[in-house]
Amino acid sequence: MEKLTDDAKQLLRRPVHGWATTVRPDGSLHSTVVWVDVDGDDVVFNTAVGRAKEKHLRANPQVSVSVLDPEDAFHLVSVSGVARLELEGADRVIDGLANKYLGVDTYPYRQPGEQRITVRVTPDKVIFSPGG
Questions:
Q1: What distance in Å separates the CA atoms of residue 110 and residue 112, rounded to the nearest whole number?
Q2: Complete DSSP assignment for 9-28
Q3: Is residue 68 part of a domain?
Q4: Residues near 124 by Cβ (< 8 Å), separated by ≥ 6?
Q5: Model confidence over 73-96: pLDDT tens digits?
Q6: pTM, whole model, 2 decimals?
Q7: Does residue 40 belong to any structural domain of this protein?
Q8: How far apart are CA 52 and CA 32, in angstroms?
Q9: Cα separation, 38 vs 120, whole angstroms
Q10: CATH number of the domain that residue 31 is part of
Q11: Using alpha carbons only, what angle is made at residue 65 by residues 95 and 8, rounded to the nearest 5 degrees?
Q12: Collapsing DSSP states into helix, strand and coil, what is residue 49?
């Protein structure tokens, strides 16, 4: 297990879009844009139950989450690890991400009947570049 440096956490705390890569049932990779944050030493993002990311992670919890600084193409962090899916507190997490990325108190894109789920990744591998 590797730890995130303070500089890597600082980049992950910025409202910079990341991407999460999961493994489809056929073994191919699936990457999607996500809102990310840091909680302690873990990277977190959020999705809805029933979406592709959640289904893929239930079948194979291997995941990678990466963020690239839009102001410096050599400033990046990429974290790989095993995902833990958490229903408890997931609404609070998505509202916090909406505040971080949109400046609103409540996630505005919630669908009727949607159940949110948080994906928590404790880093097994960290790639960090401080930029140029």
A1: 7
A2: HHHHHSS--EEEEEE-TTS-
A3: yes
A4: 1, 2, 80, 81, 82
A5: 999 999 999 999 999 999 999 999
A6: 0.95
A7: yes
A8: 10
A9: 9
A10: 2.30.110.10
A11: 85
A12: coil
